[in-house]
Structures are given as structure tokens and as C-alpha cells.
Specification:
The complex is a heterotrimer of chains A (about 550), B (about 300) and C (about 280). By secondary structure, chain A is α+β, with helices and mostly antiparallel strands. In chain A, about 30% of the residues lie in helices and about 20% in strands. Chain A is globular. The N terminus of chain A is likely disordered. The radius of gyration of chain C is 22 Å and the shape is elongated. The chains are: A alpha+beta (about 550), B mainly alpha (about 300), C mainly alpha (about 280). Chains B and C meet through α1, α6, α7, α8 and α11 of B and α5, α6, α9 and α11 of C.
Chain lengths: ~550, ~300, ~280
């Protein structure tokens, strides 16, 4: 099969194939230098701190954790851990480390580094946005409250063995160990650079940072000592920052740039899509993303289930997808299709303005009501909000738009009686890890429905929380199917209460130069967001 | 003279203090909580409280401000909430891009403004004069973002004379700088025109003419220097407005300068960065005014400092 | 000089006559928007977008084309005139009020009060105005009135400075001194002598100020911190369309031209007014 036919097959069945096992590309080649552009400078490369779509995969290329994912997929695989064992009670993980793995500074990585790294992220002084992920570990609370700096549950058994004890069985724990926040860092380098470690990252990863000129460029060089043989393929990656996306595309057309990191702006998208020259260079991939409208279940009249159902039926999702040029698929449930637990049989609330009106009348709001819709103030979010506003107006609801800076929207959502509706676009980016529980706790569970939390619907259903907890306790390998099913139930049952209007699942569209090789899936990697730099290669 | 300079310097510092206070107060009143933003989605309320305490956000306003001021005096602008980098490093990395555009932009502004003003004055009350003055009005009546976008469309997309934004070479800087220059030149050309006309009518010019000096020589040796003097304090006043235009032009042209940094920081309520950029801009404005005020008496002996 | 005479005089220049025509048209459009506009400015037409979601260029149904939500651009431009004018008048009104108050107080009282007030204007001049406005607008939840207020906060300074020096100039003239020695009350001096003499300056600055206000409103809206959607403003029409400007330039060109025209007109009229009314400039070019 030629590469070309394979590619077209690939795109035609993109959604289903995307997350199937990764097929090694025909003949990857070693060597070559590439240029990747971004508009904004990289915020930080400190794995405990970096938490945006731009630095996420860069950090993954510089650092490793105990766990990782198969390239281009959401399948967990071992990384710095050579093997792991789960105790009978499901509470203690014992990881065997790969021997001989070296940090970029030449020192060997050992079990003590694992303990140090997990404690560093948990320590409130690090101010890590990912600290909360470690709360299942025994002793986390004491560390987070500043009583001690040592995680009681993390034990160094010998130089190559570390055991981690959890307060309860937790099926998501291996995913947590695959997060950037669980990357292994060398203590001496962290202490040497202090708060500037993020500018001088030292890890065990496939690449090392050799130059960072603030506001201009970063240079990643191949780590010759990388523990996985054969990868990475590329010698140096230069990230040029401060590059306007339109300019980047223009340079890409002239082969001056290999990957336009920010993707394709909407206006150019249609032009590229309809231009045969770019058909093979454009890559579309599903993200673990759902764009949703929260309905604050504690604020009248949204506290009325019929009203929330009516709103769910009033929004024309197809039209919203059209407004963003079809770069998404309409959603009917919180989980994105690529997530385990997604229920393809669930039909959701069908678009039915007449039915919505009737339901609204039934709820006692035949004449509608007035409410507010909060949205972030960068394009296309206000446009999407206006489309929803018109749909709501059609059933008699006047939704006044509050288009604010990102931080202000987040603040408003975190106050119980402030934001009746929040459009999530531009804020809740994508899942932290490919597991349904990540779509529950912070954004739909009771834990998130607190002042300053991210559950802007203020939906708290203890029964479903308990069900979720039960699912998360199913850590054994043979329980996974049942677990996904249980989670699926949690989400469809939550939709019966209609705390959200799931709007769409956004797709990522990226474009690379002709000389770039490697499976499409690597350019829209669902975990190594946005691009899996370790496995792409130059033809 | 020295006393005058010292007094002006002390006053400039007082002004900067005022700027820092007002900026800090404004940002203190924001509803958004930076700690919450830093803490991410998975954070517990305790984590947030902890971060808030570490950043000193739980202190009363006057303590926070005082702390900031003390650090400022030691040249410490604090660290970005989002990037954790020192604000001074962030500003430093973008200062050169912005100052390049500032210098080129003001250069074009003066070049265009003065030459059009002189031309209009010399051709006073002709169609050319009226045309040039109309042009200057259109310039000052156009918002930067519209001019930037239309110039980009015309000269970069359509004619392909210039790159579609971006940074690096002289080729990149020309279009944004010319945009800034054209829009800001209007006030200068009007001012130069009227002071030229005034200078042309002065006695010594008439004398020079009667002595038989050529017109060109009279204009360049006697009229122009006199007509340009009011331009100097004008640059001082104009620079605040110019920086505003710079923010917008940087955003349209994708110019990696302080304007972009400020805009990103405002979006994410990165207070130390916002205050930092505001302070740097204020320093530039205050310094420009100071220099302009000190320069005028040097070039114009008629003005006496002690009197003002 | 009556208002009619004044207008007649101003209209001697073709450019000023044209400017007045533009201003009158914009006022007319905003007053009668609901009659003139072919469609509801907020109606998102299904057929207003291509199947791929691109906006339509000018055509027979939508005379100036559609925006990215499939709304009629012409109708939005007509309604957008309201936004520009309301903000122009309100913001500028507040700026003139504060500016005059500060300027007159400082110039009339002099002494330390005057000093403090004028030092305050120095402080405001040291702020990068646009940056301040953006920060303020982003922080305070933006609405039509907040935007107007923010603009006023930035614009009063210049007015205060001009009025201050005018007040000092007028106060030092002989007739005020004579009045004072004759025992006229402060109030009488203020209202019967000072303000009438300041009126021309105020009128000139009010006109010129609308021009700056129109520009500032457009710029704030362009940055997404202006008037809240779906209220159309010429600035936010461009904000919403900016990603498309390379392929759908009409979405920038039409509102852009209107902003420049309106701002230019107020500038030209203000300039002409200054020539007519400001005695200190009489005889100059």
C-alpha cells in the first residue's frame, strides 16, 4: 500500500482509526532539523507548573514520568518504570525503574528522584496547578497543608524500586503518573535554578533544551543517551516564537517552516481545505475536548429541571459547528467520543425549539425570562455565544452576554450566585488524561461545586458522586470494561438532570511541510498535545 | 540649571510613584483571583488559600503595595504569576522589539510630519496645501487598527511588497513603522506648517531675503530651524498617545513587543506583568517629556528655564 | 452670532460642509435606524453564511454582505451609528464636565488647590492612556456606560489643561480685575464673565473630543473589551471579523471607512469652529 492511499484511508476513517493502535510508519529516517512556530513565547518548561496546550508536549519531550502513552494514542504504556505491581488490596503500586536512565546532566535517575519529584509537585511552595492530582496518595493532605514536605505513602524500597500507597484503590492512578506533573526531575538542578528551573529544564527526555532566547526562540537537541533506542529521529527542533499564525502559514507554503504550531486560523482554513496542494499536509484529529454551556442549577429559574431541558433542546448545535467552519462535531453528552465510557447509543436532547417552548410554558415561563451568559472575550467565543443567544431568544429567553477576560469569567463561574450560564470555550481546554473520571470531579462533581471551583453548573449529585467513586475504586485490570460502563452511566444519568448543554467536540487541525514524515496521528496526538515531537521525522 | 534639573527629576519620580499606586490599586480591585487561576482545575480550596498566602494576596492593600514598592526600589519588579519568570526578564526580552518600533515609528512620524508641513507652508493656500492638510486630518482621524489592517491587506496580501507581519529584519519593521508614522504625522505637519508661516513673516527673514540670500538657503538656514523648535516638546506630549498606538499595531502585525506582553497579561490578570509594563511605559513618557523640556532651551535661547 | 449664522459661516468651506453633512447623516441614521435598516441587525440568517460557514460578499439580498454570523452588515452598520454617537456624546460630555470643572477651579483658585489639581493632570499624562483604558475596560465588566466612563477618565485631562490656561488668561484681563475691585461676587465673576468667555473653547474641544472618543471606542471594541455583543458597534464588527480580513476585506473596509469619516468630520468641524470662535487664533492661519 502506498503512503498516499494509506493516508486517504486514514483520513476517511479518522475517528475510528485515530485511537486504534499506533502503526509504525513505513521507514522513519534519522536526522534533520526542523522549525516549529508559535505566536506566544513558551510560558515555562517546568513540568510541575506548565499547564497549557503549547508547552504540554514540549515538557513531555524533555522529561519522562513512570508512565506514558503509546504515540498517537490514548493507550498507557510504561516509561521510566520497567514494570509495576499492584497489591492485593489495590492500594499499593510498586514500580521497578529502568536501570541506567540518565538525566541530561549525566547523573543516573534513581528511586529517590521519583520520591523527590512527587513531593516537589505536592509541596504548596511549588505552587503547582497539578498538585491536586496527587491527593489519592497517603500523606498528601499533610504535605499540602504545609505540615511536612514528605509524602508518607511514597517509599524508596531500593535504588530501582519505589512503592506508592494510596488511601483507596484508584483506577486513574497510572494516568496520574503519566501526567507532566509526575515527571521525574533531578533535585540538584531544581535547587540550583530555583524558580528559574522552568527556563533551565533538566530531565531524562528524548530532547534537551540547549538555547532559549526569551521572546525569540527555543532550541531542542536530540538526547543521544535517551533510553528508548531509535528515537527521537530529528536532530534539532527550533521553536520560533512571536510568529503571527498567518505569517507562519505563509512561510510554511514557502517551506521555511515545518509545523505551524498554532494551527490554521479560520479564514485560512477554508482556503487550505479547498486547495489540493494542502490536502496531504493538513491533519485533522479528535481531541479529548467538549465545549459546553453550564446551567447553574442553584440559580432560579435554572434550578428548574424543565427549564434546563428546554435550553438543551433550544440550542442549534449544527449551526454553531457551521459558524466555526465545521471544525467540530456536535456533542450530546459530556464525554467526547474518544473517551472510554462514551455512550454512542445515548441520544441526548434533540434540537426542538417548539418542544422547548412547550416545556418552558409547562415550567411556568411561557413568556420566557431574562438571564446572563458569560463568555471569554476572544474570537470566536463571543460569536458562539451570540449564536446561542439567538437560539435562546427563539424560545423567549433573553440571555445578556457578558464577554470578559478569561480570568474574570473563571472568577464569576466560581461564585455560586453570579453566573447563570457560562460558555466553556477557551477555558476548559481538554482532558488532563484520557479517563472519564477527569471529566467528572472538577467540573461536574460535588468537589468542584465550591467557591472558586470549576463546577460552574454548581451541580452536586451525591448519588452519582458515589457511583463515580465506586468506579474509580475498580483498579484491577479485569474490571476496566465494567468500570467504563459504570462511568458512562454516571454521565448519562447526569444529563437527565441537564446541568450542561454539551455543544460540540472540537477537532484540532494542523498543517506541516511536505518534508515531514510520520503518521498523521502524531501531529494531532491526543495526549502529547499538540505534536508528539519524539516520533515525527524528516523525509 | 542643575537645581532645575534636580527639581524636575524629583517631580518625575513623584509622578512615577503616583502611576504605580494607581495601577496597583486598580488591579487590587479586580474581581478575578490570580491564585485561583494559578491553582488550576484540580486544586482544593486549601491549595488556593496556600498559594494566595504565598503571593501575599491575603495581605491588606497597603501592605501589598508597600512590599511592591520596596522591591521596586531594589529593581525587583516581581515574578510573573503565569510564567514564574522575573518580570524584568520578560520586559527585557521584549524591550528591544518595542523600542525598535518606537524609534522607527517616531522617525517616520517626524520625517513625514515635518516634510509635509514645510511643503504645505511653502505652497501656502494652493491646492497642494489643502490636499496635504486634508491628508494630515485623515491620518489623525484613523484608528491604528484600521490603518494597520488595510495597509496589511493592500501592501502585504495584495501587492506583496511587505511581509504579512512578523519580526526580525528591516523589511519587517517598515510597514508597521510607516503605519505609525503616517497616523501620527498629522499633528506635526499642521504645527510645522503654521510655525513655518509665522517664521517666514519675521523681520530677520525678510532682511535675509533683502540681503540677496537665495530662497532655499534662507529656508534651510533660518526658517526651518525656528519652525522645528515647537516640535521638540510635542514629541514629549505625543509619546503617551504613540505608545497606545504601539499596543494596537503590535497586536495586528504580530510584533513581539511590550504591547503584546501587556495584552496577554491583561487577559490572564498577571498583575506583576501589567504593573511592570505600565511602569516602563510611564518611565518612557516621563523621561521623554523631561528630555524635551531640557532640550528646548538648548536649541532656543529665547526661552529661559528659571522663568518657567 | 446666532447658530444659523455660525453654520452658514462654517459651510463656506466645502470640506466643513461635507463634514456637517456626514455628521447629520450619522445622527439621522442612528435616530431612525429601525426605519432605515433593511433587517434586524441581530438576526442571524441561515442563508447569510455559505455551507462552510464563510460570510457572504455584497449581493442583492445583503447589500454590503454578511458578517461571520450571517447577519446583514448594512443593518449592523446603521445601528452601530447609535453606539458610536451615544458613547461619543456621553463620554465626551463627562470628559468636558470634569475637565472644565478641574480647569476652572484650578485656574480660578490657583494656590495649592490649583497646584494639586494640575499635578493630577500631569500624573494622568504619564499614563499610557490606551493601556490604562484597556486594563480598566477589561477589569470592570464592560457595558456601553462603562466604556463611556473609561473613555471619559482618559480624555478629561487635555480639556482640563486647556481650560486651565484659558481661565488664567481671562482672569488676568482687565475687566475681571475691575469687576473684582467693584466688589462683584465670585459667583458673578464665574458665571457672568468667565464661563461665557470659556464657552467657545469648550465648544471647540467638545467637537474635537468626539473625534477622539469615536476612535477610542472603536479601538476598545476592536480589542474585545468594548460594547457587549450583540450590540453592534463599528469597532466590534471589525473585532469579530478580523480573522477573516484577508479573505473578506469588506467586513473591515466598510466599518473602517465609517469610523474614519465620522472622526474626520468632527475634527474638521472642530477645527473650523476654532477658527471662527477662538479669538486668540483670529488672524492666524
Amino acid at each position: 500500500m502506498t503512503l498516499k492511499t494509506r493516508k486517504s484511508l486514514f483520513t476517511s476513517a479518522i475517528a475510528s482509526l485515530m485511537f486504534a493502535a499506533y502503526v509504525q510508519a513505513a521507514e522513519p529516517k534519522n536526522g534533520g532539523d526542523i522549525i516549529v512556530t508559535y505566536q506566544n513565547d513558551v510560558a515555562t518548561l517546568d513540568p510541575a507548573i506548565g499547564y497549557d496546550w503549547q508547552n504540554w508536549s514540549m515538557i513531555k519531550s524533555l522529561f519522562d514520568g513512570l508512565m506514558d502513552y503509546d504515540p498517537g494514542t490514548t493507550e498507557l504504556r510504561l516509561d521510566l518504570a520497567e514494570s509495576y505491581k499492584l497489591s492485593e488490596d489495590g492500594k499499593t503500586y510498586t514500580f521497578k525503574l529502568r536501570p541506567g536512565v540518565k538525566f541530561h546532566n549525566g547523573r543516573e535517575m534513581k528511586a529517590a528522584d521519583v520520591k523527590y519529584s512527587l513531593e516537589r509537585t505536592s509541596n504548596p511552595n511549588t505552587k503547582s496547578p497539578g498538585a491536586g492530582f496527587f491527593s489519592p496518595i497517603v500523606g498528601y493532605d499533610a504535605v499540602s497543608q504545609g505540615e511536612t514536605t514528605e509524602l508518607e505513602g511514597v517509599k524508596v524500597v531500593d535504588d530501582y524500586t519505589v512503592s506508592i500507597e494510596l488511601t483507596a484503590p484508584n483506577a486513574t492512578f497510572l494516568h496520574v503518573m503519566g501526567l507532566n506533573f509526575a515527571s521525574i526531575v533531578p533535585k540538584e538542578e531544581v535547587e540550583k535554578y530555583g524558580e528559574d528551573f522552568g527556563k533551565n529544564p533538566v530531565g531524562t527526555g528524548a530532547y534537551e533544551l540547549t538555547d532559549w532566547t526569551l521572546g525569540q526562540k527555543l532550541v531542542f537537541e536530540k538526547n543521544p543517551e535517551y533510553f528508548r533506542s531509535g528515537v527521537p529521529y530529528i536532530d534539532t527542533i527550533t521553536f520560533e516564537v512571536g510568529q503571527e499564525p498567518l505569517v507562519a502559514l505563509q512561510r510554511l507554503e514557502r517551506d521555511e517552516v515545518d509545523i505551524a504550531g498554532d494551527g490554521i486560523p479560520p479564514a485560512k482554513y477554508l482556503q487550505f481545505k479547498n486547495d489540493p496542494r494542502f490536502q496531504d499536509l493538513m491533519v485533522t484529529g479528535d481531541q479529548l475536548h467538549t465545549g459546553y454551556l453550564t446551567l447553574n442549577v442553584t440559580m432560579p429559574p435554572l434550578d428548574n429541571l424543565k427549564v434546563r431541558k428546554a435550553i438543551n433542546m433550544a440550542i442549534n448545535k449544527d449551526r454553531i459547528v457551521r459558524i466555526i467552519n465545521g471544525r467540530a462535531t456536535p456533542a450530546n453528552q459530556p464525554l467526547p467520543p474518544a473517551m472510554p465510557g462514551y455512550d454512542s447509543d445515548y441520544e441526548g436532547y434533540k434540537f426542538d425549539p417548539e418542544g422547548a417552548k412547550a416545556l418552558l410554558a409547562e415550567a411556568g415561563f411561557a413568556d420566557g425570562f431574562e438571564t446572563e451568559l458569560f463568555v471569554m472575550n476572544t474570537d470566536p467565543q463571543p460569536r458562539i455565544a451570540q449564536a446561542m443567544q439567538q437560539d435562546l431568544a427563539n424560545i423567549g429567553i433573553t440571555a445578556n452576554i457578558k464577554s470578559l477576560a478569561q480570568a474574570n469569567v473563571i472568577a464569576a463561574g466560581g461564585v455560586q450566585d453570579q453566573a447563570p450560564m457560562v460558555w466553556s470555550g477557551g477555558m476548559a481546554w481538554i482532558a488532563d488524561f484520557p479517563d472519564p473520571s477527569n471529566f467528572w470531579g472538577p467540573i461536574l462533581g460535588c468537589d468542584g461545586a465550591v467557591p472558586g471551583g470549576w463546577n460552574w453548573a454548581w451541580y452536586c449529585n451525591e448519588e452519582l458522586d458515589a457511583k463515580g467513586a465506586k468506579a474509580d475504586a475498580m483498579a484491577a485490570a479485569d474490571q476496566q470494561e465494567a468500570r467504563s460502563e459504570l462511568w458512562g452511566e454516571v454521565f448519562t444519568q447526569a444529563m437527565a438532570d441537564a446541568p450542561w448543554v454539551p455543544i460540540f467536540n472540537e477537532q484540532r487541525v494542523t498543517v506541516h511541510s511536505k518534508r515531514m514524515g510520520g503518521e498523521d496521528a502524531l501531529y494531532v496526538d491526543p495526549v502529547h498535545v499538540p505534536v508528539n515531537y519524539d516520533y515525527i521525522w524528516v523525509k | 540649571m542643575t537645581i532645575y534639573i534636580l527639581r524636575r527629576l524629583a517631580y518625575a519620580i513623584l509622578i512615577l510613584l503616583g502611576v504605580s499606586f494607581i495601577t496597583y490599586l486598580l488591579l487590587y480591585l479586580i474581581p478575578a483571583d490570580p491564585a485561583r487561576q494559578l491553582a488550576g482545575r484540580s486544586a482544593t480550596p486549601e491549595t488556593i488559600a496556600n498559594i494566595r498566602a504565598q503571593l501575599g494576596l491575603d495581605l491588606p492593600f497597603y501592605q501589598q503595595y508597600f512590599q511592591y514598592l520596596m522591591n521596586l526600589l531594589q529593581g525587583d519588579l516581581g515574578r510573573s504569576y503565569i510564567q514564574r519568570t522575573e518580570v524584568s526578564a520578560l520586559i527585557g526580552s521584549r524591550l528591544s522589539a518595542s523600542s525598535q518600533l518606537l524609534v522607527w515609528g517616531i522617525g517616520f512620524e517626524l520625517l513625514i510630519g515635518i516634510s509635509l508641513g514645510v511643503l504645505a507652508a511653502l505652497k501656502r493656500n494652493t491646492a497642494l496645501d489643502r490636499g496635504l492638510m486634508a491628508f494630515s486630518f485623515v491620518g489623525v482621524s484613523s484608528p491604528h487598527f484600521i490603518a494597520s489592517m488595510l495597509f496589511l491587506y493592500l501592501f502585504a496580501v495584495h501587492l506583496e511588497w511587505f511581509p504579512l507581519g512578523g519580526y526580525g529584519t528591516t523589511h519587517h519593521i517598515l510597514l508597521p513603522a510607516i503605519t505609525l508614522g503616517i497616523l501620527g504625522s498629522g499633528w506635526y505637519s499642521r504645527m510645522v506648517r503654521s510655525s513655518m508661516i509665522e517664521a517666514l513673516q519675521q523681520d530677520f527673514i525678510r532682511t535675509a531675503h533683502s540681503k540677496g540670500l537665495t530662497r532655499v538657503r534662507v529656508i534651510f538656514r533660518h526658517v526651518l530651524p525656528n519652525a522645528i523648535i515647537p516640535v521638540i516638546p510635542m514629541v514629549g506630549i505625543d509619546i503617551g498617545i504613540f505608545i497606545g498606538g504601539l499596543v494596537v499595531v503590535e497586536s495586528v502585525f504580530g510584533w513581539p513587543g511590550l504591547g503584546q506582553l501587556a495584552w496577554q497579561a491583561i487577559q490572564r490578570v498577571d498583575i506583576p506583568v501589567i504593573v511592570g509594563v505600565t511602569m516602563v511605559s510611564a518611565v518612557v513618557i516621563v523621561l521623554a517629556n523631561l528630555i524635551a523640556d531640557l532640550l528646548v532651551p538648548l536649541v532656543d535661547p529665547r526661552i529661559n528655564l528659571e522663568k518657567s | 452670532m446666532s447658530a444659523l449664522q455660525l453654520i452658514k459661516k462654517l459651510c463656506r468651506h466645502k470640506s466643513v460642509a461635507f463634514s456637517l453633512f456626514v455628521i447629520v447623516s450619522v445622527v439621522f441614521a442612528s435616530l431612525f435606524a429601525s426605519w432605515i435598516a433593511p433587517y434586524d441587525p441581530n438576526k442571524q440568517f441561515f442563508e447569510g453564511l455559505t455551507m462552510e460557514g464563510a460570510p457572504l460578499p455584497p449581493n442583492s439580498t445583503f447589500l454590503l454582505g454578511t458578517d461571520l454570523l450571517g447577519r446583514d452588515l448594512l443593518s449592523r452598520l446603521i445601528y452601530g451609528a447609535q453606539t458610536s454617537l451615544i458613547i461619543g456624546i456621553v463620554a465626551n460630555g463627562i470628559a468636558i464636565l470634569i475637565g472644565t470643572l478641574v480647569g476652572v477651579t484650578a485656574g480660578f483658585l490657583r494656590g495649592w488647590v490649583g497646584n494639586v489639581l494640575m499635578r493630577m493632570t500631569d500624573l494622568m499624562m504619564a499614563f499610557p492612556a490606551l493601556l490604562l483604558a484597556i486594563a480598566l475596560a477589561a477589569i470592570l465588566e464592560p457595558s456601553l456606560w462603562i466604556v463611556a466612563l473609561v473613555i471619559a477618565m482618559v480624555n478629561w485631562v487635555q480639556v482640563a489643561r486647556v481650560i486651565y490656561s484659558e481661565t488664567i488668561a481671562i482672569s488676568s484681563r482687565e475687566f475681571i480685575a475691575v469687576e473684582r475691585t467693584l466688589g462683584a461676587s465670585t459667583r458673578r465673576i464665574l458665571f457672568s464673565h468667565l464661563l461665557p468667555h470659556l464657552l467657545p473653547t469648550i465648544m471647540v474641544w467638545a467637537t474635537l473630543g468626539i473625534s477622539t472618543t469615536v476612535l477610542l471606542e472603536a479601538t476598545l471594541s476592536f480589542l474585545g473589551v468594548g460594547v457587549q455583543p450583540p450590540t453592534p458597534s463599528w469597532g466590534n464588527i471589525i473585532f469579530e471579523s478580523q480573522t477573516y480580513f484577508t479573505s473578506a476585506v469588506w467586513l473591515v473596509l466598510f466599518p473602517g471607512t465609517l469610523i474614519v469619516l465620522l472622526s474626520l468630520s468632527f475634527n474638521l468641524v472642530g477645527d473650523a469652529l476654532r477658527d471662527e470662535l477662538d479669538p486668540s487664533l483670529k488672524g492666524r492661519d
